[in-house]
Please model this.
Amino acid sequence: MPILEILKYPDPMLKTVSEKITEIDGPLISFVNDLVETMKASPGVGLAAPQAGRPVRVIAIDVTPKNPGAGLIVLINPEIVSASGGKVAREGCLSVPEYTANIKRAADVVVKGVNIDGKELEISSTGLEAVALQHEIDHLDGILFIDRIANMKRDLFKRRT
Ligand SMILES: [Zn+2]
Model:
């Protein structure tokens, strides 16, 4: 399976609101497999379809490298059903490789969506995985983590190369 090219800011695709998926067909399944493969081959814990050049509502998340036992989540048409609490955590993004930032997010979320077999799922999540879910769903609405920085001077950090 090919590794997909990850688009970088300021590619206009990253500002696009992605389309809802209406049919899980062969080409979509093969794209989702490539998306997962690409995420696993990269240093990130999540990837959204528009980052790989397709404006459709699918995300892949796997925080297992930082949180053993978490497992892979692939969600089609994900939606945040409820969000509670708040916390600030350092985020990065494969599409904005040169920076990290402190971003305020909900601490706990419940997300619903459909898996690759078309089965409806509802996931309650907390910690890094909850942050990743919010970050990746933002991508489907054309929102990057840098759009959520409260104070550029205080909260944005250039990565050391
Ligand atoms: Zn991202």
Q: What stands out?
A: The radius of gyration is 15 Å. Strands lie at 46-48, 58-62, 72-84, 87-91, 99-105, 108-114, 120-126, 156-158. The pocket of zinc ion is lined by residues 93-95, 135, 139 (CB under 6 Å).
